[in-house]
Amino acid sequence: MKQLSLQECQKRLLEIAKCFDAICQRNDIPYYMIGGTLLGAIRHKGFIPWDDDMDFGVPIKYYEKLMGCLEKELPKQYRLCQFEKVKNCNTVFSKIDDMETCVDDKCNKCPLSEQLGLSIDIFPLCFCEKENESNIKLQKLRYIDQKVFAESMENRWYKRFCKAILRAVFPLSRKRLMKKMWKLTNSIKGGDYLANVFGLVGERELIPLSFYGRDSRYQFEDAFFCGPEKYDDYLKQIYGNYMQLPPVEKRKSHSFGVYLKHTTSGLEHE
């Protein structure tokens, strides 16, 4: 299989995002660029140069509607990945992956040919208050998931051994734990914040609803995608001085390697 360059990966991600945007527009489903994707749109008018993923958020009351539309309308090259339906999908939130590719995720112990493809992430955004009991419980379950089930590149034998013991004694399978997390996600309701409860920066993910405002579209490479109206307030809350580039040593992509699968003719293209 041919390994794709970062630029080739970004090109494919952009095409997935365009398809996602078109389906949302056709079905009146609001969404927002979030995290590094919004940062890229504002600071770089596209991808952060070293980035290899795209993140979007959808208010949870539209989430199931979106899943139904994606199942019906995605072209054959793309697949809706949900943990209950796709074997190696280990996130509670959904993804759209490119089935012509596979990501060599060393933390996922399965053959390369069975790995998920290059994908965009679709996070549910929950209306909540700062002190929401369901969200507090959800974050505790996320912590357990990371400590017990999440694979690691850690080479220290005793840490791998401890994880194996924890899995053996933990009363729930990972899939059952993820179902509990999704149930809690759906129980988070009401409030003046719209939160990415599966985000990486804790309380900073609790974004005042007013930051999202009216529909606003921002340039991203040769396309335009939706984002928060008060993008400056959003990005300052998440990143602080977001226009300042990080040190060179922190400019790292996420993937371990992305490969183009053989086509039905046995030839690789691109």
Report on this model:
The protein is of the alpha+beta class and 270 residues long. The chain has 2 domains: 2-132 and 188-260, no CATH class; 133-187, no CATH class. Helices cover 37% and strands 19% of the residues. The protein contains 8 helices and 12 strands. It has helices spanning 6-26, 35-44, 63-73, 133-149, 157-169, 174-187, 209-212, 231-239; strands spanning 2-3, 32-33, 54-59, 78-81, 94-98, 101-103, 119-128, 193-196, 206-208, 216-220, 223-227, 258-260. The strands form 3 sheets. Strands 2, 3, 4, 5, 7, 8 and 9 form a 7-stranded mixed β-sheet that branches. A hairpin with a 2-residue loop joins β10 and β11. The longest helix has 21 residues, at 6-26. The chain is globular. It starts with a strand and ends in a 10-residue tail after the last strand.
Give a quick rundown of the structure:
This protein has helices at 6-26, 35-44, 63-73, 133-149, 157-169, 174-187, 209-212, 231-239; strands at residues 2-3, 32-33, 54-59, 78-81, 94-98, 101-103, 119-128, 193-196, 206-208, 216-220, 223-227, 258-260. It has 270 residues and is an alpha+beta fold. The radius of gyration is 19 Å and the shape is globular.
Please give the structural blueprint.
Blueprint lengths: L1 E2 L2 H21 L5 E2 L1 H10 L9 E6 L3 H11 L4 E4 L12 E5 L2 E3 L15 E10 L4 H17 L7 H13 L4 H14 L5 E4 L9 E3 H4 L3 E5 L2 E5 L3 H9 L18 E3 L10
Task: Please tag this protein with its features.
270 residues, globular, 2 domains, LicD/FKTN/FKRP_NTP_transf, alpha+beta, seven-stranded mixed beta sheet, 12 strands, three-stranded antiparallel beta sheet
